[in-house]
Design goal:
Layout lengths: L2 E4 L8 H13 L2 E4 L4 H6 L9 E3 L9 H12 L8 E4 L14 E5 L10 H8 L5 H19 L4 E4 L2 H11 L4 E2 L6 H4 L12 E6 L6 H9 L6 E6 L5 H12 L5 E4 L4 H10 L2 E3 L9 H8 L4 E4 L4 H4 L6 E4 L4 H17 L5 H8 L4 H13 L3
Parallel strand pairs: 1-2, 1-4, 2-3, 4-5, 5-6, 6-7, 8-9, 8-11, 9-10, 11-12, 12-13
Helix pairs in contact: 8-13, 11-14
Length: about 375
Amino acid sequence: MKIAVFHNFIDNIGGAEMVTLYLAKELDADIYTTNIDFEKIKKMGFEDIISRIKSIGKIPKMAPFRHQIALWKFRKLNLGKQYDFYIISGDWAMSGAVNNHPNMWYVHGPINELWIFKDYVRNNMMTWWKRPVFDMWVYLNRRLTLKYSKYVNTWICNSNNTKEKINRYYNANAVVINPPIDISRYNSSAARKQLQNFWLSVNRLSAPKRIEMQMKAFKMLSEEKLMIVGSYEKDTKQFEDYKKYIESIKPNNVEIISWVDSEKLTELYNTCKGFITTARDEDFGMTAVEAMISGKPVIAPNEGGYKETIIDGVTGILIDDINENRLAGSIKKINIELKSNPNKYKEDCIKQAQKFDVSEFIRKIKQEIESYK
């Protein structure tokens, strides 16, 4: 079958973008998007699909214009019978379901800005005079996306956490297919190097990731070191503002790298002693699985998709009502355990992460597509 994948923009590479790239690579599919960073795509190991990535036009970097215009462009996109099947991967590309059939929407998070993070964004990221405008924007886009969602033929999502949100907000039932992790990339003897004395955090520099909590925890742990790989949308005000805030409270034992390629990221996973994430109600959390396939324990909030991937006390620690004090305490606990037994978590982490291999993801996606033949 000839397949097209829709993604709102690929000028920054995170978990959702990696899923899109894997779909294109493994299904020999074309990608339709707006803004593209070909250099980053190449450095993440997807050079072979660059010729199949097509832009439907550039859009602004600034939110909410970025999201709104992407939604509008995909609403107007009509590829007719050029393809046998369409996969919507980027959530703001979901309007592409209107004109392009048969289709599936692989939901990473059901447009969280409009629903579960709406109050957080409004109260923490908006000045008082912007809030009425934001409320109207949310209201209009809820109506639009609810309307467009009626054209989705098949709902697929990345976790039971996301499945529940889809049911709650869109009154639809989705099939759970966990996102792909290339276990051969992270779990190989060739990739393994000597363990170093640092913790790792990999996430977008955005407020829902609660990176300030990591800063405050490591301020209390002067003997520890944290390396943060924090990608963000450059020249976008809310990301630039949050980055400046994070840098203003960063203690000396924390280092922030804005972006690294696939090879460097693999090295960091394999040489860190443990992984930390503090994201609020994460839909799935691919980075936690990447850390586990590298044999590293994960410390995370006991919420969202982390409850579906991390086994508390076996592959790491899930923290109830997480804050900087509890995070610091968990780091101390794992440090003591690793000093006694450096490989305490290794086998269990690898065993758990193997459930999420890219081959299993593609097998299940193909099963869903086959049903339309």
